[in-house]
Design a protein that fits this description.
Strand order of the largest sheet: 1-2-3-4-5-6-7-8
Distance between the termini: 21 Å
CATH architecture: Alpha-Beta Barrel
Number of domains: 1
Mean pLDDT: 95
Bound molecules: pyridoxine-5'-phosphate
Structural class: alpha/beta
Shape: globular
Number of helices: 11
Largest sheet: 8 strands, parallel, barrel
Order of helices and strands: EHHEHEHEHEHEHHEHEHH
CATH superfamily: Aldolase class I
Radius of gyration: 17 Å
CATH class: Alpha Beta
Helix content: 40-55%
Strand content: 15-25%
Number of strands: 8
């Protein structure tokens, strides 16, 4: 078990499958990428089974569950189909995300406030099966409060806006929003994760937030793997995360 204060790294292997599917053959295999990421220091593997199966497909989930020792964070939309698949496989965790068919990637967090009625049964059924449910939300107090009232033990805070904005003042404001949200989440008893769009350039300020327990990173690591290999990309990300945590602890910040 990772020690308290340790920041876990979940590696999302979706885009290995994107490349594989571009050719319609078996190579490159996201399960092989997951094994490599595990060897390089990943603490978990994330895979998003989308309704249109544009990257990860059902057989990948079977193989990831059977062949990879790390906990699987199964990303899904809150649909009946995905709930049934999750209940069949019983992964360690399920992260519920909003999903629009035409989007290039997950574009924003769930609306846990207005989505109470459709999210409630999914959180309940997955939790009853022993799956640790997280809700992917924007870093807003009312979303965290809604996640808590839905019974989700974990939230994943959307870092996409923080990563995308170029203006330093706007980025600092977004970082502060994430930090305030993570502190609030932790104070009300939620485990806070974060992810979306993180890279070597953007990870450190997020990794330094002491109330965040896990980062989930995919596209950048898989892209970087083209140039220097997946193992090196994962190791460098791990190092940057550890450095950020060590610097923050040395500066005496408390939770
Ligand atoms: N977390 C969630 C909930 C996501 O939907 C995604 C994208 O699939 C990620 C993290 C990883 O984002 P990225 O691929 O940009 O690192």
């Amino acid at each position: 078990m990772p020690q308290e204060g340790y920041l876990r790294l979940g590696v999302n292997v979706d885009h290995v499958a994107t490349l594989r599917n571009a050719r319609g053959i078996a190579h490159p295999d996201p399960v092989r990428a997951a094994a490599l990421a595990a060897e390089a220091g990943a603490d978990g593997i994330t895979a998003h089974l989308r309704e249109d199966r544009r990257h990860i497909v059902d057989d990948d989930i079977v193989s990831l569950m059977a062949e990879i020792d790390l906990p699987l964070n199964f990303e899904i939309a809150a649909t009946d189909e995905m709930r049934e698949i999750a209940l069949r496989h019983r992964p360690h965790a399920a992260c519920i995300v909003p999903e629009k068919r035409k989007e290039l990637t997950t574009e924003g967090g769930l609306d846990a406030v207005r989505g109470h009625n459709y999210l409630g049964p999914v959180v309940r059924d997955l939790s009853a099966a022993g799956i640790r449910v997280s809700l992917f939300i924007d870093p807003e107090k009312e979303q965290l409060d809604a996640a808590l009232s839905l019974g989700a033990p974990v939230v994943e805070l959307h870092t996409g806006t923080y990563c995308e904005v170029e203006d330093p003042t706007a980025r600092a404001a977004e970082l502060e929003r994430i930090e305030i949200a993570a502190a609030h989440g932790s104070a009300i008893g939620l485990e806070c994760h974060a992810g979306h769009g993180l890279s070597f350039d953007t990870v450190k300020p997020i990794a330094a937030i002491p109330t965040i327990a896990e980062l989930n990173i995919g596209h950048f690591l898989i892209g970087e793997a083209i140039f220097g290999g997946l193992a090196d990309a994962v190791k460098r990300m791990r190092r940057l995360m550890d450095e950020a945590r060590a610097t923050r602890s040395a500066s005496g910040s408390s939770e």
